[in-house]
């Protein structure tokens, strides 16, 4: 686990070398991003890979907003042209406007509006940041506190460094040596998230979101996380390293208090294969998602990078202090750009964190697309269960209706057992959990609930 001693050592490293050059092998780029945010650095971070490639990152209160490169990598006009937002003729005319930034020229000509330019600038910043994660350890960096090279340039668009951290590590993968060091520090302690861990800022999706939700709910050891097969070993390693790099793992996790008030057994388990209509119940939010992405040889050209950058959305608000979270897993309005499966992942994530407000708003969005989606309707019922003073009897009827539509609907039956337990109907709840296990013997949530409801009463419980 990352300790305060490690952190103080790293602080000394940054203070000592702010005016000099340090290799990325000694202080990695992911460490730089987090440390810059911690200290709210304002200035320029200069990263040099060789004599021909230099990247200058503008930081304002530790948040990157503009990135200059010495080559032509990820130019604004190319970003717009590749996405079909401008024509070659419009871009050529804009580039011919002497002394006028290409974005401003395109807006003046009516080719695009300012909102499109802002989104493209975010994509440009992220793309250039992602490339830095793939630089060799021999590359060097130094910090310039009072750099003036950005003064004459158009205003930048800030990007959450935690979002960039997650995207960069997914595109290139963390260095094995650093991951091994983190795993060694974990020992056999449970993975407990610190109380200030704003993991929604990572914008995780797919298998990585499944893994981090499992960590949140079950607080497993690293070995137990791998054994659960909730995600591939590569994704588990990357997610654990991401949490450690962001300092979101509680120091001294052994015996630490849970990061959430509920035990893993009391959280709804959604990892079982879903029995139901295949058209509307295509997959379950927290099942293991088989996703395989090879690290691209060129960071800007892979399909995975394009998808990730497309989900970055508009920039997040700049934090007023390092401890203030940037809201939401996606920028306002960006949920509409998520696929149906990604919406299911988001809903399940917020339910695991017992954030029914977020989950229910996403359920409404998903139901606008498909009112007959039984999975979303079941998730919506459970979100209402988590609200203060829920009407459990009404919600029980709604789960009954879902099971009339599909008696083999594992998710609704498991939720009905949970609601019946809250109503004190232990015998009926036991029947639900037994039916879930008969349909899916690997359903750990139902097995844990059945063990509790079937346990003999102690003298104090009688």
Describe the structure in your own words.
This protein has 462 residues and is an alpha+beta fold. Among the domains are: 132 residues, no CATH class; 87 residues, no CATH class. The protein contains 19 helices and five strands. Helix 2 runs antiparallel to helix 7. The protein is globular.
Secondary structure: elements and pairs:
Blueprint: H1 4-17, E1 22-23, H2 29-39, E2 43-50, E3 53-60, E4 63-69, H3 76-82, H4 88-95, H5 102-108, H6 114-132, E5 140-144, H7 161-172, H8 176-186, H9 206-218, H10 222-228, H11 233-245, H12 303-310, H13 340-352, H14 356-369, H15 374-385, H16 392-405, H17 410-422, H18 426-439, H19 444-454
Antiparallel strand pairs: 1-5, 2-3, 2-5, 3-4
Key features of this structure:
6% strand; 462 residues; disordered N terminus; five-stranded antiparallel β-sheet; alpha+beta; single chain; globular; 19 helices
* C-alpha end-to-end distance: 43 Å
Strand content: 5-15%
Quick one: biggest sheet? 5 strands, antiparallel
**Average pLDDT:** 76
Silhouette: globular
Number of strands: 5
Structural class: alpha+beta
How are the strands of the largest sheet arranged?
1-5-2-3-4
Order of helix and strand elements from N to C terminus: HEHEEEHHHHEHHHHHHHHHHHHH
Quick gist of this model?
By secondary structure, the protein is α+β, with helices and mostly antiparallel strands. The protein has helices at residues 4-17, 29-39, 76-82, 88-95, 102-108, 114-132, 161-172, 176-186, 206-218, 222-228, 233-245, 303-310, 340-352, 356-369, 374-385, 392-405, 410-422, 426-439, 444-454, and strands spanning 22-23, 43-50, 53-60, 63-69, 140-144.
């Amino acid at each position: 686990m990352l300790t305060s001693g490690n952190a103080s050592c790293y602080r000394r490293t940054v203070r000592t070398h702010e005016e000099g050059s340090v290799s990325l092998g000694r202080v990695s780029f992911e460490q730089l991003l987090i440390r810059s945010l911690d200290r709210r650095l304002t200035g320029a971070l200069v990263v040099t890979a060789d004599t021909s490639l230099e990247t200058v990152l503008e930081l304002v209160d530790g948040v990157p907003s503009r990135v200059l490169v010495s080559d032509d990598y990820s130019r604004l006009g190319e970003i717009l042209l590749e996405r079909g937002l401008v024509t070659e003729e419009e871009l050529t005319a804009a580039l011919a406007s002497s002394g006028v930034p290409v974005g401003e020229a395109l807006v003046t000509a009516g080719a695009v509006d300012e909102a499109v330019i802002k989104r493209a600038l975010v994509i440009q910043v992220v793309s250039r940041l992602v490339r830095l994660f793939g630089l060799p350890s021999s590359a060097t960096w130094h910090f310039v506190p009072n750099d003036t090279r950005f003064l004459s340039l158009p205003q930048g668009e800030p990007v959450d460094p935690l979002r960039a951290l997650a995207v960069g590590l997914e595109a290139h993968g963390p260095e094995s040596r650093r991951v091994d060091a983190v795993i060694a520090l974990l020992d056999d302690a449970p993975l407990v998230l610190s109380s200030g861990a704003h993991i929604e800022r990572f914008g995780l999706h797919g298998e990585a979101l499944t893994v981090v939700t499992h960590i949140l709910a079950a607080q497993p050891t690293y070995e137990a996380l791998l054994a659960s097969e909730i995600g591939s070993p590569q994704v588990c390693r990357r997610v654990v390293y991401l949490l450690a790099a962001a300092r979101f793992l509680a120091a001294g996790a052994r015996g630490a208090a849970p990061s959430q008030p509920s035990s893993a057994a009391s959280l709804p388990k959604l990892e079982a294969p879903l029995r139901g209509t295949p058209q509307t119940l295509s997959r379950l939010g927290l099942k293991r998602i088989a996703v395989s992405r090879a690290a691209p040889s060129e960071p800007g050209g892979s399909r995975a990078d394009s998808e990730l950058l497309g989900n970055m959305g508009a920039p997040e608000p700049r934090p007023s202090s390092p401890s203030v979270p940037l809201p939401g897993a996606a920028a306002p309005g960006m949920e509409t750009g998520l696929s149906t499966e990604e919406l299911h992942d988001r809903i399940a994530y917020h339910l695991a964190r017992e954030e029914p407000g977020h989950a229910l708003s996403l359920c409404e969005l998903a139901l606008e697309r498909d009112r007959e989606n039984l999975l979303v309707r079941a998730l919506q019922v459970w979100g209402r269960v988590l609200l203060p003073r829920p009407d459990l009897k009404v919600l029980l009827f709604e789960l009954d209706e879902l099971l009339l539509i599909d008696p083999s609907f594992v998710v609704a039956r498991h939720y009905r057992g949970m609601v019946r337990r809250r109503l004190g109907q232990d015998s009926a709840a036991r029947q639900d959990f037994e039916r879930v296990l008969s349909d899916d013997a690997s359903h750990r949530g139902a097995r844990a609930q059945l063990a509790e409801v079937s346990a003999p009463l102690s003298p104090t419980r009688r």
